[in-house]
């Protein structure tokens, strides 16, 4: 089994764009060398939130902000 591969932000944007252009999810997955489930979850997230960024990306920003605030309070 090949190792898991994560899509970077550019690839996620490209996948959503291709899907919106009418390319089937399975073909998008094949072109990006990921499983169909990765694309299905990405499209579901985009449809529900209008974003293709993962929540973890936003969590990293919140953690950085928290560290800055804590540092200023010390």
UniProtKB/TrEMBL annotation:
This is Paired domain-containing protein. Pfam families: HTH_23. It comes from Littorina saxatilis.
């Amino acid at each position: 089994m090949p190792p898991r591969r994560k899509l970077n932000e550019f690839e996620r944007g490209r996948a959503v764009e291709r899907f919106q252009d009418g390319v089937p999810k399975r073909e998008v997955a094949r072109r990006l060398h990921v499983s169909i489930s990765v694309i299905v979850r990405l499209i579901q997230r985009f449809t529900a939130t209008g974003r293709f960024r993962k929540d973890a990306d936003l969590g990293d920003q919140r953690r950085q902000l928290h560290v800055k605030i804590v540092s200023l309070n010390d």
